[in-house]
Amino acid sequence: MDTIHDYTLKQKKYIPDFPRASGKPTTYIEGYPCEDDEPMAATGFHGIQINTFYDQLSRYFSINEQIYIGVDSFIYYSEGDITKFVAPDIYVVFGVNKVPERRSFYTWAEGAAPVAIFEFLSDSTADRDRDDKVALYLNDIGIQEYYIHQPELEKPAEFRGWQRSSSGNIIEIVPDVEGGLFSEALNLWFRWKDDPITDVRLLRPYLPDGTPITTFTEEAHLRQEEKHLREEAEAMAASEAERRQEAEMIAAREVERRRELEIEIEKLRGQLANEQNDTP
């Protein structure tokens, strides 16, 4: 099975349709700071989680040039007020150009707000992530969905999400029996698992049919594995063809041998008949 080709078809099938944003790509607006003194990741756990999650989403949404994914960069959401900003771990915006890369994201300039935001809990931000940011993100900024996840294995597992209902109220997304949450905005499932290799509780995205979204590195390994399996299959087919050709040659030689024997038998029969006729 060509899983790479199959996956590409699923991308085209499952990525949501959305309108183009009304603004234009804006790399930087003078007067709006684009960095602070805080490190990108609170811990190594967060760094692995953020990098892996960004890699997966980037790979999945790479086929659409109108999807932008931001990582720990400022989102300014009120023109003229430099105090109105947030810096989520990961956010996804539909309808805006993927390039150029932004130093910050300005909702009024781009004509769009993120459809989904993801925060990975740390000791210094967990309380605000669980409480204040829910209303801030969904009401003040106008995003559609907000998720929080605890990547540290030594901490209790925590994965929650909120969305706005059709009436505009904030509601918590109900998990399935396995604790997964379905994103209506992104048309993706999100589930976590303890990863023994990285020692991180990794949040990962899945297609609606359960297909995992891989990283670029995992995709490269998959391509290499498929190449290896294809070469093995081709080698087996070639070997089978050789065996079949050899069997056909043996069968042809056997047919020829039988024909020669039959000719020889006929000759002997003729000779015997002649001898009998010559006998007085």
Please identify the top-level CATH class of the largest domain: Alpha Beta
Radius of gyration, whole Å = 33 Å
CATH architecture of the largest domain: Alpha-Beta Complex
CATH topology of the largest domain, which one? Answer: tt1808, chain A
Helix/strand structural class: alpha+beta
Helix count, DSSP H or I runs of 4 or more residues: 6
Strand arrangement within the widest β-sheet reads 1-4-6-7-8-9
What is the terminal separation in angstroms?
80 Å
Mean pLDDT: 88
State the helical fraction.
40-55%
The total count of strands amounts to 12
Count of separate structural domains: 2
- The stretches of 5 or more residues where confidence is low (pLDDT under 50) are none
What percent of residues are in strands? 15-25%
**Which oligomerization state do the chains in this entry correspond to?**
single chain
How can the largest sheet be summarized? 6 strands, mixed
Quick one: overall form?
A: elongated
Order of helices and strands: HHEEEEEHEHHEEEEEEH
